[in-house]
Amino acid sequence: MKLISLTFGHKIKSPVIGYFFLAYKTMEHMSTMKFAKGWKTWSGARYICTSLPQPYYFRRLSFFRQSGSSAEFTYIMLIQIEHLMVSAETALNLASSLRQRLSAYVGVYREIDFTVFS
């Protein structure tokens, strides 16, 4: 997959930072470069970043496009959002509203540290 990334600020590890993970399937005729160049609009990236309620704001947005034909999803977008995990209910409600507005598979996750003992 090829990466298109917009970054605002440095990566900060925090228990309140959360991520929206969006995966898009497309028809064969839709995976053209012309279509891909308009990704900020059709992926919902503009909508998501401008409609986040306070105190949420996006810190990083990464957009991936498949480079081969074996992937199930053609495009994947990952949005790092500050304060998303302050309230899990709010994060899940935001994800639910995105599912209704966008033609994408939507997930919410956060980073955790763990140790595996053998």
Automatic annotation (TrEMBL):
- This one is known as Reverse transcriptase
Where does the record place the DUF7153 domain?
A: 13-111
InterPro entries, per the entry: DUF7153
Native species: Toxocara canis
